Amino acid sequence: MIKITLPDGSIKSFEAGTTPMEVAKSISEGLARNIISAKFNNKIIETSTPIQEDGSLVLLSFNDNEGKKTFWHSSAHLMAQAILKMYPGVKLTIGPAVDNGFYYDIDFMDYKISDADFPKIEKKMLELARGKHEFKLREVSKADALSYYKQEKNPYKVELIENLKDGEITFCNHDDFTDLCRGGHIPNTGFIKAVKLMSVAGAYWRGDEKNPQLTRVYGVSFPKQKQLKEYLELLEEAKKRDHRKLGKELKLFTFSQQVGQGLPLWLPKGAALRERLESFLKKAQAEAAYDQVVTPHIGNKDLYVCSGHYEKYGEDSFQPINTPNEGEEFLLKPMNCPHHCEIYKSESWSYKDLPVRYAEFGTVYRYEQSGELHGLTRVRGFTQDDAHIFCTPDQLDLEFKKVIDLVLYVFNSLGFEDFTAQVSLRDPENKTKYIGSEENWEKAEKAILNAAKEKGLKYVVETGEAAFYGPKLDFMVKDALGRSWQLGTIQVDYNLPERFELEYKGSDNEMHRPVMIHRAPFGSMERFVAILLEHTGGNFPLWLTPEQATILSISEKYENYSKKVLSLLKNHEIRATFDNRSETTGKKIREAEMNKVPYMIIIGEKEEEENSISIRKHGGEDLGSMPVEEFVNRINNEVDASLSKFRV
RNA sequence: GCCGACGUAGCUCAGGGGUAGAGCGCUUCCUUGGUAAGGAAGAGGUCACGAGUUCAAUUCUCGUCGUUGGCUCCA
């Protein structure tokens, strides 16, 4: 007999060789119908895998993340089977589950495939799925595995097998289909009731561009048709929130081929919104004793040679600007930090002066690969809400915490509630590739971990993910649709102070090297606005939104009174407009709704007589009529409630 | 940069070897209206650009540029 520990802590005895499915049946038939795989001692196994020893067992359904993964991985097998039947001779490579489904990388040889072929592949998959073919995992010897794939003329699988150990190689069969696979499958293909192929894309064998290019087919599948429908609706919703679409509709920004790809043009509304964000942060930074600096958009190439950026990124950057002076070269600024280092160097410092905090909304230019450009989230010219803090190693701890406070303040003010942090530390196995003393790294890593803990951040630690010049803390926010985005970053840097030979005089009358902190709560203004757009769906917080209120007059007769109201609002610094076109009220309301204006002010005969205004909120709520003063107070209160002052 | 898809009016998109359509927007006129589209008329396009095939190309082929989904990259 073996003892199985279930997630609720209960321990049950079973005969050795019992399968997870039998365990499920012993609990309830309903459970047995729903489980699609299992996890035994933290290893994913099939529901039919006999268990031979004591251990803990988790039964997985499609609702569990790991269950989903096995479901999607199994679907990849099914897709491969369908594709192999329709395109005989294609070479399969790998077919894993990913966060939103699965893919299979296939060498299609001479076949061409496009999304027009998807419906018939989907049909074939469902047809095959209905056969309820069991997924059967079996061990094969390395020699047999190799000879099987050599005979199949599949060099990719052969390469994969060559890197595996004999005795650890398993094949998975279902129906007439065989695949190299380590396992973790659903019981049979019949569970797959809905499939949708999403896209084809090129992908290199093993992710290396020197290798042959394969065709990656992405798909998603579900146990119920209804779930597929819901998923597709979610995608539709995401599409509606796409910042590129909203940016166009709300007239925030645009691009022009004439100007150049990846170079955003901010339209008046977008520019004003961005400035509002900037002054919001400037105010907080002033409170936190940052000094604003301004540096030029270009710098002598030697500056970036000194910083090391030229060596590392020069090749892929905008090419140097030459001048009539022989040998003189300038670069478009790819980073603000070298400039700030030079500002630091312009005077001598005592430990009593530190920390020094230089902040700049610095526009930088990077020649991102053309295929990587994407709306405002990946561009070639963007403005960082950059700042560099020069401090003594002893001040690092406190400074880091202060930066976290600032980042949290920014997130709170903008309604990002669901975020996580990632602490990136050194690779303990390979400490030689990092610059800076052991002692300082220890200090910095401890400082970050302490700060994260003390500030109550939800964080994960990634060892080996630190930059060569220092550890860092990145913030990932989730938008309204649960998608994760990296925003703010705080990085410790030992490298630049070294390269620029930055110094301060310590209390011991000796010169010492300061530590630098790079930080950007927004990351970049472009990226941040994009994410904010997707997060809010274009319904910005009142303090930020381009148009807080719009006056809709019932007819031209009320134009004078409307204008009077408009100027009253403007006197109170409320961003209001007046729609005095000769359109019906219904139409004006519809357009204001689509432009996502938070408050609509309706003015007609009644309002003019009463010397009041009627308010409709975005979304349809009728707030009735009120004096202008009351409305002004309402707006101010709402802004104040969402936007607290930053205090250190 | 690489692979696939796409590029038609300011915007969203239909069409298709015989040289172009809708809705919205815009202009003018009528209408003066009460909480998500009032009516009419009009202007607006070398069908991304360049070459090729063809009697004829916006349509087919190739190339370029751009957009887009991925891959690789991201100071």
TrEMBL record:
Q: Where is the signal peptide?
A: none
Per its UniProt record, what InterPro entries does this chain match? aa-tRNA-synt_IIb, aa-tRNA-synth_II, aa-tRNA-synth_II/BPL/LPL, Anticodon-bd, Anticodon-bd_dom_sf, Beta-grasp_dom_sf, TGS, TGS-like
- Catalysed reactions, semicolon-separated: tRNA(Thr) + L-threonine + ATP = L-threonyl-tRNA(Thr) + AMP + diphosphate + H(+)
Give the required cofactors.
Answer: Zn(2+)
Q: What keywords are annotated for this sequence in UniProt?
A: Aminoacyl-tRNA synthetase, ATP-binding, Cytoplasm, Ligase, Metal-binding, Nucleotide-binding, Protein biosynthesis, RNA-binding, tRNA-binding, Zinc
Per the record, what is one GO cellular component? cytoplasm
Q: What class of enzyme is it?
A: ligase
**GO biological process assignments:** threonyl-tRNA aminoacylation
Question: Where in the numbering of this chain does the Aminoacyl-transfer RNA synthetases class-II family profile domain appear?
Answer: 242-541
- What's the protein name? Threonine--tRNA ligase
Q: What is the lineage of its organism?
A: Bacteria, Pseudomonadati, Bacteroidota, Flavobacteriia, Flavobacteriales
